[in-house]
Amino acid sequence: MTVAVVLFTSDLRLHDHPPLHAALAAADEVVPLFVRDPGVRAAGFDAPNRRAFLADCLADLDASLRHRGGRLVVRTGPVVREVHALAAECGAAQVHMAAGVTGYAQRREERLRRELAGLGVALRVHDAVITAVAPGAVVPTGGDHYAVFTPYLRRWSAEPLREPLPAPRAVRVPDAVRGEPLPSRAGTPGLSPGLPAGGETAGRDRFSRWARAGLDHYGERHDDLAGDATSRLSPHLHFGALSAAELVRRARARGGPGAEAFVRQLCWRDFHHQVLAARPEASVRDYRTRHDRWRTEDEAAEDVAAWREGRTGYPVVDAAMRQLRHEGWVHNRARLLAASFLTKTLYVDWRIGARHFLDLLVDGDVVNNQLNWQWVAGTGTDTRPHRVLNPVLQGRRYDPDGAYVRRWVPELADLDARTVHEPWRLPADRRAGLGYPAPLIDLAEGLDRFRRARGRA
Ligand code: FAD
């Protein structure tokens, strides 16, 4: 009997899963393994919202495997030690896993390769499992990654994608291999009340429903804050419950401007992955320094607290921050506005904002979070790094009726479209009765400080 191990990481699905497919083709029995690595917690990436969503994903994966005669084996411990021990225990000849891009994932892969080689076990790392196109598959002449999105999009769009692999019909797991009880979302403290349910089944269901009802209108509606017309697939993609390659193929098969706009967003995801794969240090350091002397948490303690709590006095920023806390998810336009306000209007270090987002976002990942924060802060890949978004003008444009603000900022629920983005224009007595803070900062002052800091005054 030949045995192979499949180490699941950010690819918690059975459909379109190249490592599982290859392991099943190569061995009589396969051990689907997930390791709860305390290193993830030590690195500060184990936030309650994601822990709960992960528990849903693992439960769903286990149920789907059981349906096929198998089960998921969960173990806790340093991932390299656990994989090594399991491979030795079941006499595996191969371990299969998806390639990762973060510094953590790259180190994990190197150490696994070394340790398993000592045991005579081959490590097979599969590309394009987490992204649609593998980082490094398209590179500019003379470079190791694309630093600008549009030329990347052009090349990325021409790359052939595999035909999505079907979920396996049967998975045989060696009887003797034992696992731990699955973690459960129940009782996780500090969860956002509006947190969605995770798992491949829920993710596929969401995509199918949204592809029928939302995809065609995505192009014209995705920036409408109140319309909430985006796919909300990001947590499913973050945990790999959905395959990005499969989504691209299914959207392309449908065609039309909505599908094209949606595929473009999935390309942004791949774009950031290939940047971080080539520059893993961009998770903590400026990708392109602008020589900022950002205000620190100590210097800006009150401003940062007001921003985190959604009481900056700028309604659309506060709405974004309250949605983040309530749902663990935020609309992309609202993320942009909240991040621009912190980094450019308040001139606070992007890492402070990125940390807070990572603490709450159910889709929070080092790749997309850190690089989007850098994009907004102007230290990343934005080709207009000094632009500053005005929360009043942006609010009026992307929430013209004010419904998004009214939904998340109940103090402003009775205001009309004219005043909801500028409550300070109300007569003093009415304003006082709202219980809503006055603006934390004058926008012109913030702009002036930022321009001076960037040498553009
Ligand atoms: P849709 O509009 O339906 O887009 C489909 C998919 O495309 C998304 O699910 C996502 O996987 C991908 N996508 C869309 N926009 C982007 C983008 N700008 N960058 C990378 N991928 C994108 N996204 C995360 O997945 N994790 C994060 O931690 C994260 N942090 C962010 C922080 C900031 C400051 C900003 C401005 C953006 C961040 N994003 C992050 C990107 C984006 O906001 C979310 O992916 C998107 O809002 C998710 O909603 P959706 O699934 O409805 O997206």
Gap between N and C termini, in Å? 72 Å
Order of strands across the main sheet? 3-2-1-4-5
Count of distinct strands: 5
Q: Uncertain spans, ≥5 residues at pLDDT below 50?
A: none
Largest sheet: 5 strands, parallel
Strand content: 5-15%
**What is the typical, i.e. mean, pLDDT?**
96
String of helices and strands: EHEHHEHEHEHHHHHHHHHHHHHHH
Number of helices: 20
Produce the secondary structure layout.
Layout: E1 3-8, H1 18-26, E2 29-36, H2 38-42, H3 48-67, E3 73-76, H4 79-90, E4 94-98, H5 103-118, E5 122-126, H6 149-158, H7 200-213, H8 218-221, H9 234-238, H10 244-254, H11 257-278, H12 301-309, H13 315-327, H14 332-345, H15 350-360, H16 366-377, H17 391-398, H18 403-408, H19 428-434, H20 443-453
Parallel strand pairs: 1-2, 1-4, 2-3, 4-5
Bound molecules: flavin-adenine dinucleotide (FAD).
